[in-house]
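Hey team,

Filing this mostly as a record. A colleague (T.K.) asked me to run one chain through the structure pipeline before their review meeting, and I want the input and output archived in the tracker in case anyone asks later how it was produced. No errors, nothing strange. Just documentation.

Input sequence:
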Amino acid sequence: MIWIHDYHLMVLPGYLRKQLSGAHIGFFLHIPWPSSEAYRILPMREKILAGLLSSSLIGFNLFDYTRHFLSACVRILNVQQESSRGTIGISYGGRHVVIRVSHIGIHPERFSEAISTSSVQEIESRLREKYKGKFVLGGIDDLDFIKGISLKLEAFETLLESIPKYRNEVVLYQVAVPKAARVQERIRDEIRNRVKTINERFGTPDHIPVEYVENDIPFAERVALYRVTDALFLTPIRDGLNLIPYEYLISTEDSGNGQLILSEFIGCSRALSSALRLNPWSPKKLADSIDFVIQRDPQEVKGRHVADTNYVKSHTTEKWIESFLKDLETANEPVQNVLYLGLGLGIGKRLVEFAGYSRLSIAEVLKSYRSSDRRLFLLDYDGTLTSTASSSRMEHAWARPHDKAIGNLQRLAEDRRNTIYILSGRTTEILESNFGDFRAIGVAAEHGFYYREPWDPEWKTQKNVELLDRTWIESVHKIMQSYTRRTDGSYIEVKSVGLVWHYADADPEFGIWQAKEMQQHLREVLRGTEVEVITGFGWLQVRYRAINKGTMVSRILGSMLQEPSFVLCVGDDRTDEDMFSYLDDNLDPTKSTVFTCTVGIQPSLARYYLRHSDEVVNLLGSLTTNELRSSVSSPEDVKTAIL
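Output structure:
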């Protein structure tokens, strides 16, 4: 197991995955992930995401950060998130990456034990004497623009202006820790000038409203400051988890008097129920919050303090580590065979083989093809024989098979030992326009509802259309129309016995969200009917449950005089899984050699994969010539070709 931390090493999982297939790689990001709109401007955005998604488990402090990360994956890599029983995941590159939302804690014992030390007690006693009878607001921040110290000072000044009685009763003790790489002179000067202005306006010889320390302070002084602070006051405009409130709560556990005024942009503010969460850009509301905590009922303060202290003690660093490593250990990470080919003069390496299942071996297919005299080809249309599986309206309308694919299929069909079927969700009109002249090739339209057998010009149906209950079509069409009106870029494809809602041209996140809403809506409306709702990448379809590509394969096999000894079945989406499943369940492996293959690396019931439709075309070309073509070769094929 390997556990990588923080943004400096975001591409490292990708390099490790290439060298250590099967390794359980965990990554935890300790800072916020930006919104997808901000992230997408990075020129290396794909490389960073691909590097992170080479991990087995990715951790974020808060769901907000997780949501932004998932949004970036959807918009930039066109992958979709999955959720099951409280677990969020992403399928990418043939692997399942788990996303975990959890945050690091502190070591409570370090602070609780420090309380009784003489160094802490001495400093605490001095501070209590100095601020006796005062209400102390405390803050420890890095001297950085994002920590919002200027906003805090503005709010404190607003409080003293609006409520004069607090001018001699409230103290702000602000520690600003300079970080050499991040200190901006302009910010430093602005803070110093604000402190000077407040002290000159509201200070007296006996009272200084703002105690400003521009330096790091020792641990003992830090704990002592926590203990004399009546309310911790932090106002970052953007922050990660920020564990200072945790330290403060443990340091004041024995008194139970600590209160929290936190920016809503601090990660931990959501986890602490006692905190007042406010927008730091509103000085009036911040000032009002100070007034509120000063007047808060002591019993309420103690009750909330106890609850938050128990939370901090139950979410320690040790428990966070144990929990993360346990999830990492159980993450599914199959060992994969990986082949690297040198680039140029061997300076770099290119990943050739990377998947959770086997790449289709052209050598094995050729060997089986040559030895068989009863061959069956079952080929999907969109995304398998065409160059794109996109449901973008223009691409979907104009998609047609490669010219090479048509030529290869013609040559294969000339061999009487070959039976070829094209199975598609397209209408009969579209398939007739592309394959009408090739009578030797069988065609199935609308997932097999309509079909035309080889050498037969007539279209048939698996079921009599007149006997089907089609009353659902009108109501489903109205529902789809309502979603289409509200989803720019979406459209409806009307078929004889089904409807498809396409949303690939819509906003990626909104389209997915709308599709999930529609899916739930339609399932409620169609409960008890003979139709089902299925989804794929960029589309949602309503079809008859008993008619699919699997039932069409059953009909094809039933029409053959003998069971085929060679079967090549290739597809690329959810509807093709019915074919893969039927072949696995119903063909005798001792009599038939079956190659089920998906196009693209993705979760599938297929045994093999090819990366792109071009590789399908080259595969068919190899079968027509009985020659090995390296463009679709697996690592074993490369070795065979070399030998």
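Quick notes for T.K.: The longest strand covers residues 135-142. Residues 337-356, 630-643 have pLDDT under 50 and may be disordered.
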